[in-house]
């Protein structure tokens, strides 16, 4: 089933992720700039950065929703990353975003668009 259809809407959230102080462990998610994941009728650009996997027991799965818009914690497959620490990710290459994540301190703030039914 296609994760997006014409009746989809988006909720926008901000998540705080924290990892060990030595930054030895990854953030626990993978992403892809893949417009095929999103329906052409969405309001998101073709260079949207979509979360493609979330590792169990990782900082991504344990991420705290700091937007105050829901009780749900954790990043989810299909979430579209809008910003990383306040910087828009649209237009970045995979390598640029990966480098920013690798160089990040022990905490990051990610804003996302989450696809959901109306």
Corresponding CATH architecture: Roll
Provide the CATH topology: Pdz3 Domain
Oligomer: single chain
The helix-strand sequence is EEEEEEHE
Poorly predicted segments: 1-7
From the alpha carbons, calculate the radius of gyration and give it in angstroms: 14 Å
CATH superfamily: PDZ domain
Task: Give a written overview of the molecule.
This protein is mainly β. The chain has a single domain, classed as Roll (Pdz3 Domain). Helix content is 8%, strand content 36%. It has 1 helix and 7 strands, in the order ββββββαβ. Strands 1, 2, 3, 4, 5, 6 and 7 form a 7-stranded antiparallel β-sheet that branches. It is globular and about 40 Å long. 24% of the residues are buried. Mean pLDDT is 80; it is low at 1-7.
Q: How are the elements arranged and paired?
A:
Blueprint: E1 8-18, E2 29-33, E3 49-54, E4 64-65, E5 80-84, E6 87-88, H1 94-103, E7 107-117
Antiparallel strand pairs: 1-4, 1-7, 2-3, 3-5, 5-6, 5-7
Short overview:
The protein is mainly β and 118 residues long. It contains one helix and seven strands; from the N terminus they run ββββββαβ. The protein has a single domain (8-117), classed as PDZ domain (Pdz3 Domain), CATH 2.30.42.10.
Keywords:
118 residues, mainly beta, Pdz3 Domain, 36% strand, disordered N terminus
């Amino acid at each position: 089933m296609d994760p997006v259809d014409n009746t989809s809407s988006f909720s926008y959230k901000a998540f705080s992720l924290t990892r060990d102080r030595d930054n030895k462990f990854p953030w626990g998610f993978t992403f892809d700039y893949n417009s095929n994941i999103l329906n052409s009728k969405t309001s998101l650009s073709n260079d949207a950065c979509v979360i493609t996997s979330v590792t169990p027991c990782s900082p991504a799965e344990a991420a705290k929703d700091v937007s105050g818009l829901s009780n749900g914690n954790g990043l989810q497959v299909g979430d579209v990353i809008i910003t990383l620490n306040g910087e828009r990710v649209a237009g970045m290459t995979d390598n640029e975003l990966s480098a920013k994540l690798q160089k990040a301190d022990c905490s990051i703030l990610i804003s996302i668009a989450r696809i959901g039914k109306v």
